């Protein structure tokens, strides 16, 4: 008779409440037995294979897990080691109710692969640093070119953290693969082996971002042409060598022909040619290719009104539907641009029924406050996931690092948590997920719980209110993307424009008079977006160029909506800050969040004033409520 | 009887034409004899102290030099080793005419100190690189933290280059003094000694940029308070140790209380307190303090219309007139902002009659095309020097580096050349100086000479035409400052605004309704700038906010002037490029400049289109000539 307390290290302070002391019995058979034993040991307990127990883990059942709660015993069953682990963590989330008799719970993940993509660099990049778009300190894996071997215990905690929310795949390096990163495929492979060994007990398979030019830069070939036999042979041999060392290697992730990365276009080949070559090399080993659809002309001429970056992924990839091998996963950003706080769902996600699609979300808050602003993203994700039923996998860009709170902003942990939970079960309501996270993280009293909900539930909509209006996007400082700069990208090659002049603002993407983007959607969305009357307000300026005096569906004019939402957004941040000041919570968390809320308020005011002043200077139309516009 | 050919290595190809073979006799007396002998040897010849000669160098005469040209002999006389050197180089410039009998030439420098300030970093700065605002490759002196000891022969060539144009002082490190640079005062002093030994034969004294916090960061004191006796003692002892190793050390250069640099404000002291403390430590050794007047609030709130960066240097320093020690040189940028292509002369230069003033020019083309654009700056400098007769020294921020052409753009050499020549004799016409440089560098035929003048003479005004209009300044990409971004600095803390709205543009700096800046000038300039009717067009938007329909003194409206100058500027660059394509010149120079002219044209078109579109979108007023505005 032994006891175990199983809890993920969600906070470094181990603030996630353990179940308590429960006797555990595990019924396992066959080869997975030792793995589960090891995994349970890592969780701080021991297996009990005979005798009395409060919790029985039993392998044998559906993919996913089942939990039966009888009078004296609760049983977790699964067909797989991974399912058993996830069931075990489910009992942690349930707390005492896991041990109260009740109906059988059957749970299976909605997305077969639930993947985190780390944009971690091995070498410190001169501009992007150790982690590209990272706001949580350094990399958990890499520091200044080397594997952080002394810090592998923290990686083990991290693997447990990911397993606890159902993540089962992780890419360990940046999709922008620089010189040193490229070598993880070959002479730096031992680093990957070491990390795979850490992740394996938690049923998290490791993937690797590779450069399409690897046959040249690593293999010494003079081409990377995907149809060249020598190139194909090089990939086969090289990847086979990876599988020799990492039999459960997940596969490769590729950003090709995008923002300067090499790709098949250099050889007059298609993306399908490129992806299928890799797929062929991986297929014998059960690996997959994640091929990113983030391909567009990043040297566009702002003077050219016919090119539309929003169309790019569709125009590049939709014609290739059906051309990709079965183990190619086309990884598509949820929106057509680049992780703005508000975008329509990418039309690619409805245009490729014969292609395996992953939807890519950005957990790291590049455009949503950079983990200095509270911005709980689950409401946005919940909407886009339900709007894109064709996606069969979910990938998220990680927001974690070696920060003591894992995510820089302590409340940004909720985004990681929510990503995992939505990837398992997208029908969960965002506020329910948040409530789980609050309970597990803080075990708060009612007042603190209420305050946390008041601060976080609507924080994404608050962020949207004080930043770029009505879906127009961008208006951030170029480069680092923090804070406002309305014209920052307006005359650049990046294809991210708002076209504001003294009369109006917005991008005409209609079929009738614009770039034709709205026509890429299936009915009824093509008609809804095309129609000025029917287009949802929050996407109006993404789809249409309108006068400042245009009246929204809400009944307000565009210009008055801009003023109103920006004043409202700042007021909401002020309210957040006041609530936080009164909350009772762990002192280190309280202090960190307090400092960050000061910055969020400063930044929100800056956004409000720049946006309002910009549009007042352009339109000449004052605020009907007479508030201060500089 | 020996011969000598004396020519500075102006181009790495030694393209500067040597005089030819001339017999040289040098009459020298006393202690300088050996130095001149050594200097002559470095120039590639030998002294001839007896017998026949075509050129006699004679020490004994005025400060500066005299050249007498008699039938059989030309004699150069000077009171000093330095004067003799400069006279010798004058004969190089004169070419054959130095040996044709003619009237005696007396020449003395207008500015006693003619100084180059290198913004070179020792360590590679993560943002600014090896050379801050450097566009000519790496540093001649430093690489990745270390002195380039293997490349000292090139430093020797560089010293000769500077001597050939009369430069007699050089600061060897960036005014933004980081950790490693600070140590040049103490344990890295041997590096400075090595460089001083290289510069000494060419009569160029070395100066050092120091951090005001040195007593803390190097001395281990807990304060840098300039009135603290321990601080004063530390500086005295430390600087005395420098003079022990470098007896002709020039002194220190300080950027204090500016853009985050430490300074006397932290201790409630004035800039005079700070500068005088250093002056006291330097005085026994004959050294000077160059104290920069570039002090302003770089965390301004763009919403605050009362703070005016243009006033800052005046407001900080004018009240201190008379308070500085005799060996303090207050180093004042030529304009009140920051080296824009067009600024009024800084009012500080007319406001401090009891202070020794240096005017600071920027030879490195931070805001004037970054050595990718042809922009011959002598016309601007000639005007600002003649407008500020109170300045007694001239300092220029160096545009040189380890690029094979010394200055990146081969034609940017003309700016370095002109800086030295104007510092010696500001009455020289810019086109005369350019002609000297063309002759010495290319020895071209008439067609090539004419083409070079056509390309370069007006190139600064061309640059002005296609960039920010009518003196308003900035409108560059933040950070790197290359290319247009009209609103790039508009909502930033840097104090550089244009206040364009749908009705008009410009900064109201009048006494009547604005910031009062115009009132800082002596009569008649205060009245001229204050008056909308009298203010020169080229400074109109620096002084006034006017409607787009305001009619300039030229008879055009502001908006039409913007369109016309921007179309004209691009046409002029096209003409430059065509002329260059036809010119006959050294192939390496031709190739480099051709590539750069392609970039200049691309950039000029980008400027034209962004500026025109920006103001068309704001004003709604079309071009009366119907040209394409995007």
Automatic annotation (TrEMBL), chains A, B:
Report keywords, A-Z: Glycosidase, Hydrolase
Gene Ontology molecular function: any one? xylan alpha-1,2-glucuronosidase activity
InterPro entries linked: A-glucoronidase_C_sf (IPR037054), GH (IPR017853), Glyco_hydro_67_C (IPR011099), Glyco_hydro_67_cat (IPR011100)
Give residue ranges for domain Glycosyl hydrolase family 67 catalytic.
104-386
Cross-referenced Pfam families: Glyco_hydro_67C (PF07477), Glyco_hydro_67M (PF07488)
Under SUPFAM superfamilies, the record lists: (Trans)glycosidases
Q: Where is the Glycosyl hydrolase family 67 C-terminal domain?
A: 407-627
Please tell me whether the keyword Hydrolase is annotated for this protein.
yes
**Keyword DNA damage set for record:** no
Q: What is its EC number?
A: 3.2.1.139
Cellular component per GO? extracellular region
**Mind listing the GO biological process terms from this record?**
xylan catabolic process
**Which protein are we looking at?**
Alpha-glucuronidase
Species of the source: Catenuloplanes atrovinosus
